[in-house]
Design brief:
InterPro entries: Endo/exonu/phosph_ase_sf. The chain is an alpha+beta fold. It has a domain of 71 residues. It contains two helices and four strands; from the N terminus they run E-H-E-E-H-E. It has a four-stranded mixed β-sheet with strand order 1-2-4-3, with no helix packed on it. Helix 1 links the parallel strand 1 and strand 2. The termini are far apart.
């Protein structure tokens, strides 16, 4: 879905997955044959290298939470990978992400 011919469509294909902080799970996802079928990957509990970066792909922009670099002592728990085929030629403002209390039933 990430080829340029599909970018004229009004639909985005989004994949969301919890990777359980597994380096192997993340590599399998990013190097699998289905990688090109999605426009946006929303990854939770991803693997973070000791240098504070994660594993990505040259075909995707990695979007970290706004606090990822300003507060490196806080481990990021989610990122978005946005296909490079999607135009980013627009002015955007970061979306503030605040820590929320978790609720259980």
């Amino acid at each position: 879905m990430s080829d340029v011919s599909n970018m004229t469509s009004s639909h985005l294909c989004i994949w969301q997955q919890n990777l359980n902080k597994s380096n192997l799970n993340q590599h399998s996802l990013l190097h699998g044959p289905h990688m090109q079928n999605w426009d946006i990957y929303m990854l939770q509990e991803l693997y973070i290298h000791p240098n504070k970066n994660t594993i990505s792909s040259p075909k995707f922009y990695t979007i970290y939470p706004t606090t990822h670099f300003s507060h490196p002592e806080r481990a990021s728990r989610a990122v978005m990978l946005i296909s490079t085929a999607i135009s980013t030629n627009m002015e955007t403002n970061p979306i503030p992400i605040t820590r929320c209390s978790s609720y259980s039933a």
